[in-house]
Amino acid sequence: MKLNKYISEFLGTAFLFCAVVGSGIMGQSLTNDESIILFVNATITFFALYFLISSFESYSNHFNPVVSLAFFLNKEISFKTFVLFTLLQILGAIIGVLTANIMFDVELFQLSNKNRSGFNIYLSEIIATFGLVFFILISNKDKIALIVASYIGAAYWFTSSTSFANLAGTIGRMFSDSFAGISPENVFSFGLAQIIGSIIACIVYKYFFKDSL
Question: What are phi and psi of 148, to 5 degrees?
Answer without folding.
Answer: -65, -45
